[in-house]
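STRUCTURE:
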């Protein structure tokens, strides 16, 4: 299993949610409100004047647990719909997952 973590501007949250809800391989996901910091902030079209002064922008982080063979399908769907350069991802191994 893998955990696909997606980080995007909060303005993209609804579009990402709608997209992920339409992908059969995605059984569910978590959304966390985060702040983004990085050298690319000068190029970020979403940043307001306040965010440029503060040095961060509001982001959402989505965590999705996927079977190994479903990762490519989900990433391809995201690539096809994401605004270029505004959605970041990382993929990590999941040793166990379940309900308590």
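SEQUENCE:
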């Amino acid at each position: 299993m893998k955990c696909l973590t997606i980080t995007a501007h909060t303005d993209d949250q609804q579009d990402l949610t709608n997209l992920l809800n339409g992908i059969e391989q995605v059984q569910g996901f978590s959304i966390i409100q985060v702040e983004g910091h990085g050298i690319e902030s000068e190029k970020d079209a979403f940043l307001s004047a306040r965010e440029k002064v503060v040095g961060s922008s509001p982001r959402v982080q989505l965590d999705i647990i996927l079977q190994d063979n479903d990762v490519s399908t989900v990433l391809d769907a995201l690539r096809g719909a994401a605004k270029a350069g505004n959605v970041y991802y990382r993929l990590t191994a999941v040793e166990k997952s379940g309900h308590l």
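REMARK: The first strand starts at residue 2 and ends at 9.
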